[in-house]
Amino acid sequence: MTTVGGELALRYFGRIYLAGNALIFAFVGLGALLYPQAFAAAIGITFNTSAAMPEFLATYGGFMLAIAVVLLIAQALRRYRRVAYAALSMAYIGFGLGRLYAMLFISGFDERNLLFFFLEVVMVVWGLFCYRESRWLPLQHGH
C-alpha cells in the first residue's frame, strides 16, 4: 500500500489488532482468576484433581494476563510491534491446529469450536498481514 489513506489505515489496523488482542487476553485472564469455577464451567472444564485448579489458573489466568501485558508494551513501544504480530500469529496457529486436531480425531465438530477455529484463522491472517505490511511503513506511521 502506497497511498496516504492506505498507510493511515495500516497504522491503525495493526494497533487495533494489538489492542483488541490485549483486551481479549486480559478478559480471559481476569475471568479465570476472579471466577475460576464459572469460567471453567463455561468452557466445559471440571476440576477433578487437586492439581487441576492451579494448572487452570496458571494457564488461563496468569499466562493470559502476561500476554495482555506484553501486548500493551508492544502497543506502547513501536520496536516490539512486529515481534508481537508474529508471536500472536504463531499463537493463533497453535490454537487453531490444536482445535482442528481435536475436532478431527477426538471430539468431532460443533458450532462453538467451528466459530473459535474461524476466529483463529482470521487472527492469523490479520496478524501476518500486519507483520508483512509493517516493514514498508515509514517510522512516523507508528507500526
UniProtKB/TrEMBL annotation:
Keywords: Membrane, Transmembrane, Transmembrane helix. It comes from the Bacteria. InterPro entries: DUF4345 (IPR025597). Pfam families: DUF4345. The keyword rRNA-binding does not apply. Coiled coil: none annotated. The chain crosses the membrane at residues 12-36, 56-76, 83-102, 114-131. This is DUF4345 domain-containing protein. It comes from Microbulbifer spongiae. The lineage of its organism: Bacteria, Pseudomonadati, Pseudomonadota, Gammaproteobacteria, Cellvibrionales.
